[in-house]
Write a structure and sequence with these properties.
The protein has a single domain, classed as Carboxypeptidase-like, regulatory domain (Immunoglobulin-like), CATH 2.60.40. 10% of the residues lie in helices and 38% in strands. The chain has 2 helices and 10 strands, in the order αββββββββαββ. Strand 6 and strand 7 form a beta hairpin. The longest helix is centred in the N-terminal third of the chain and has 11 residues. The N terminus is likely disordered.
């Protein structure tokens, strides 16, 4: 039976199942936290120019969770698109990534697709993943340089 020839009462299940999902959940499993101090700051953006910081990006998704509760973080109501995630283990909860000698991170960090850090954060394309109609699960390992 086609939807065009249906009686509404009989075809409502067909109509509901045929409708595309507008939003999905992106869930992150975080591994490798070296302590339960402070918070984990998570930012997810589709804007390559604002990755990894997401500052000034009203369309970015952000979550802050106490480090002792940060085994899993979820972004709810995510629209389909291409995104990248950056994590910061802000151990002293001062709202920024502390650095030694002005450049080496003192706190932990991680990126979607477990993108590696070379002489700076990965490019958006190295961490990017696609969000479609189905929920997404990412596993991100925290890394520490000091």
């Amino acid at each position: 039976m086609s939807i065009r020839g249906c009686v509404v009462a009989l075809c409502a299940p067909l109509l509901v199942s045929a409708a595309p999902a507008s939003f999905v959940e992106v869930q992150i499993a975080i591994t490798g936290l070296r302590s339960e101090r402070g918070v984990v700051r998570a930012c997810m953006t589709a804007d390559a120019g604002r990755f990894p910081r997401c500052r000034g990006n009203d369309a970015a998704y952000s979550v802050v969770v106490r480090a002792d509760e940060a085994g899993s973080i979820a972004f709810a109501r995510v629209r389909p698109g291409t995104y990248a995630i950056a994590l910061l283990h802000d151990e002293n909860d001062n709202g920024k990534a502390d650095r030694a000698f002005g450049m080496m991170p003192k706190e932990g960090f991680g990126f979607s697709r477990d993108a590696r850090v070379k002489m700076g954060p990965p490019a958006f394309g190295e961490a990017a993943f696609v969000v479609g109609a189905d929920p997404v699960r990412q596993s991100i390992r925290m890394r520490y340089m000091l």
